[in-house]
Specification:
With about 650 residues, the chain is an alpha+beta fold. The chain folds into five domains: about 100 residues, 3-Layer(aba) Sandwich (Rossmann fold), CATH 3.40.50.20; about 70 residues, ATP-grasp fold, A domain (Dna Ligase, domain 1), CATH 3.30.1490.20; about 240 residues, ATP-grasp fold, B domain (D-amino Acid Aminotransferase, Chain A, domain 1), CATH 3.30.470.20; about 120 residues, Glycoprotein, Type 4 Pilin; about 70 residues, OB fold (Dihydrolipoamide Acetyltransferase, E2P) (Beta Barrel). Helix content is about 25%, strand content about 35%. The chain is built from 16 helices and 40 strands. An eight-stranded antiparallel beta sheet has the order 14-13-10-11-12-15-22-20, sandwiched between helices. Strands 24-25-26-27-28-29-30-31 form an eight-stranded antiparallel barrel. Strands 3-2-1-4-5 form a five-stranded parallel beta sheet. Helix 7 crosses helix 8 and helix 12 runs antiparallel to helix 13. About 45% of the residues are buried. About 5% of the residues have low confidence. It binds adenosine-5'-diphosphate (ADP). The site of adenosine-5'-diphosphate has 21 residues, from strand 7, strand 13 and strand 14.
């Protein structure tokens, strides 16, 4: 077995590879860019070597620096993960030339599949079904246009050297053709340094199915079953499953056999994935990915195998651990990619500090995480935070289990898509396998979060804010001495912004504890047993018990209630009514804080409701309003001074009559 392994990657996949390596007693070496100096994958390795600045071309894509890091750390092998240099034949060759074991296929196998044109031509010759189109040598725009016209519309133009869904153009009418070819050529040249294009018939709503294959250096080949990755957004996979659902048995057998033919055809070694499109009648070869895929986890879940262990054994020269007959598949597994992007705002990538990231746990649930609470998501790389995978005896249970797990993933500080993914998993279209690769591009809106704020959630938000303001065991101002007796019910108002609308709620707290919540919409809820413990707020509201997970960060509040996630912002509290009850003209603050404004002076006459003092407490401003009309007799605190809880702030003489 290999003794030391450098992973030329970051995030969840680096952590994932280290886990298997550690179990096998292999010394682990991380590499990192400046943006990742404190990243989870760096913490997870035995050693870590800095590569360079944040941009990938100066770090994770820089072969020279990676090879130098391998030399400096005495690494025996390099695992490239996925993305970055994983499908770069030159890098695989450079590793071999430097005497390092490249954990992946030989450079010639990567090169064979590196061009979609070459791959497609070879596969057609080997009898694997391919989509009609053009994958020829004549690459001038006039020839391409002629070929495209004879292939018929609609069609898709792909950069031959492309990857990751980049640079593809769909052409639906003849009028668009010439411009699309010219644009595709320019993009292919600039993004991949190779302008060669492939044209093929465009299938409007196919499913994406693929087969995991494995080969060793002794000429053995197996497949580990199929997967479906049809839930995609802009050709990026989001939900993947194994096995592919609803495939006729005969077709599934042909699909798996075709994938093994593809691997054999190029003398493949290591883990690979053969990708196909399936239009409901036939499957067509699309490409082979010559690396470990993001979604390898669902295959692991249904086979019980560790694919990274297999890769390491094969790289060390061992034979495949199992024959085809010994490979057993059981149950169903689904993976969801949790990404730092905002489904409510066009899936804009989100970066920054993860104030909270708590991954789910539970029977049949696996998490491959690249980040945890307190980590920073850099904006230099892809947005994957981690993957949640659920296994169950059948598809329906696996989907329910995964949706529940995603609903129990708590992320704050950075926008993320886990609740959106959960809604897809719970949708009829997904459950009934009526989805295809175009589903999310045609109608992502149907999976949008509900924009209504249930009354109970609003009250829980107010309670969480209210209770956080007074630490457990603190003396309530309504119980403090100074001859103070409550003669008015204390009312505290909160306003929250949610989906661009303001929602007001007022808590009545006679004797200190919230008893009634009045909503601006007229609803009144009786409140009992309101508690805030850690990040959990609970209460009985109108005789029903409610509980929410909550996370507060300055004026931001996230509540997770059942399957819902609600992000609220406390509205400017200066506008809030903060009615403190008064006795013998003394006015008190219910919270310790700092005086930020005293808009009155001694001797001034005020009307009931006039602002007397503004106190900042718990990052909120509270206005102390006059409970009755009168004259200000004295003021005990000036602007900038601290006020202890329950202390009289000023005296107000009630107006006669
Ligand atoms: P890349 O190497 O850039 O990932 P692929 O050839 O694998 O490119 O295609 C990526 C995605 O584009 C597929 O998963 C599928 O969603 C879509 N796609 C590719 N070819 C076609 C086609 N002929 N018809 C419809 N969609 C296609």
């Amino acid at each position: 077995m290999i003794k030391s392994l450098l992973v030329a990657n970051r995030g969840e996949i680096a952590c994932r590879i280290f886990r298997s390596a550690r179990r096998l007693g292999v010394r682990t070496i991380a590499v990192y860019s400046d943006a990742d100096a404190h990243a989870r994958h760096v913490r997870a390795a035995d050693e870590a070597v800095r590569l360079g600045p944040a941009p990938a071309r100066d770090s994770y894509l820089d072969m020279v620096r990676i090879l130098a890091a391998a030399r400096a750390s005495g690494a025996e092998a390099i695992h490239p993960g996925y993305g970055f240099l994983s499908e770069n034949a030159q890098f695989a060759q450079a590793c071999a030339d430097a005497g390092l074991v490249f954990v992946g296929p030989p450079a010639r196998a990567i090169a064979a599949m590196g061009s979609k044109i070459v791959a497609k031509t070879r596969m057609r010759a080997a009898g694997v079904p391919v989509l009609p189109g053009y994958a020829g040598e004549a690459q001038d725009l006039a020839s391409l246009e002629r070929e495209a016209r004879s292939a018929g519309l609609p069609l898709i133009i792909k950069p031959a050297a492309g990857g990751g869904g980049k640079g593809m153009h769909i052409v639906r009418s003849e009028a668009e053709l010439a411009a699309a070819l010219a644009a595709a050529r320019r993009l292919a040249e600039s993004a991949f340094g190779d302008g060669a294009l492939l044209i093929e018939r465009y299938l409007p709503a196919p499913r994406h199915v693929e087969v995991q294959v494995f080969a060793d250096s002794h000429g053995h080949y197996v497949h580990l079953g199929d997967r479906d990755c049809s839930t995609q957004r802009r050709h990026q996979k989001l939900i993947e499953e194994a096995p592919a659902p609803d495939l006729p048995g005969e077709l599934r057998a042909r699909l798996r056999a075709a994938a093994v033919v593809v691997a054999r055809e190029i003398g493949y070694v290591s883990a690979g994935t053969v990708e196909f499109l399936y239009d409901g009648r036939e499957f067509y070869f699309m490409e082979m990915n010559t690396r470990l895929q993001v979604e390898h986890t669902v295959t692991e879940a249904v086979t019980g195998l560790d694919l990274v262990e297999w890769q390491l054994r094969i790289a060390a020269g061992e034979a495949l651990p199992l024959t085809q007959e010994e490979v057993r598949l059981s149950g169903h597994a689904i993976e969801a990619r949790v990404c730092a992007e905002d489904p409510a705002h066009g899936f804009l990538p989100s970066a920054g500090r993860l104030a909270l990231l708590e991954w789910p746990q539970g029977e049949g649930v696996r998490v491959d995480a690249g980040f945890e609470s307190g980590d920073t998501v850099p904006d230099s790389y892809d947005s994957l935070l981690g993957k949640v995978i659920a296994w169950a005896p059948d598809r329906e249970q696996a989907a329910a289990r995964l949706a529940t797990a995603l609903e129990h993933t708590y992320c704050a500080g950075v926008r993320s898509n886990e609740h959106w993914l959960a809604r897809i998993l719970r949708s009829a279209v997904f459950r009934e396998v009526r989805h295809d690769i175009a589903l999310l591009d045609k109608g992502a809106a149907r999976f949008a979060a509900p924009a209504q704020l249930p009354d109970e959630v609003l009250v829980l938000a107010a309670l969480a804010t209210h209770l956080a303001g007074r630490p457990a065991g603190a003396v309530s101002p309504w119980q403090v001495g100074d001859g103070f007796t409550p003669n008015l019910p204390a009312r505290i108002g909160y306003r929250f912004a949610f989906h661009g609308h303001l929602h007001a709620v007022e808590l009545e707290c006679p004797g200190g504890a919230p008893r009634v919540a009045r909503l601006a919409n007229g609803a009144t809820l009786e409140v009992a047993e309101a508690t805030l413990e850690g990040e959990s707020v609970a209460a009985r509201l109108a005789a029903r018990r409610f509980k929410a997970r909550c996370h507060r960060d300055a004026e931001h509040l996230v509540l997770w209630v059942g399957a819902g996630e609600y992000e609220l912002r406390l509205d400017d509290p200066r506008t809030q009514e903060f009615a403190a009850s008064a006795a013998s003209g003394g006015l008190t603050t219910p919270l310790p804080g700092v005086v930020v404004a005293v808009p009155v002076s001694v001797g001034q006459q005020v009307a009931a409701g006039d602002a007397l003092m503004v106190i900042e407490a718990m990052k909120m401003e509270h206005t102390i309003a006059a409970p009755y009309a009168g004259t200000v007799i004295s003021i005990h605190f000036a602007r900038g001074e601290r006020v202890p809880e329950g202390r009289a702030l000023l005296e107000l003489k009630r107006a006669e009559g």
